[in-house]
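Lesson 9: reading folded outputs for more than one chain in a single document. The general rule is that every protein is listed as its sequence immediately followed by its structure tokens, and records are never interleaved. Here is the first one.
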Amino acid sequence: MYLVQSIRFLKPVFIGDIITTTCEIKEVQADRPVMVIACRCKNQRGEEVMTGEASVLVDSYPFVPRSRAPKQV
């Protein structure tokens, strides 16, 4: 579930454009099941057309951040 989202539209997108989206988990809050995700969209020419950030509620709780999760062997 989205809690907060911000988006910046940097360039126009046209019919026929091919858009590639990349998302990165920037933060996982240790005290509650919320993560912050940064997203970027680029067109077929590699031009950034949109950037944004969202805070989302993680579906399962308790959520264990990877940095605190037991290491797998």
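And here is the second record, again sequence then tokens.
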Amino acid sequence: MQNITAVMYMADWKCSNCGFVKSTRCKPRKCPECGQSGTFEKV
């Protein structure tokens, strides 16, 4: 039997509206700081 290791990479996402940075695997939909949607860009 083979050992398979899944590696999940974290990315830093920055809100272009307020500058809030969040580290997560998936792009956040809404900024928890300013409440804007669709403003996150990968940094």
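What the second record shows: The CA atoms of residues 14 and 21 lie 4 Å apart.
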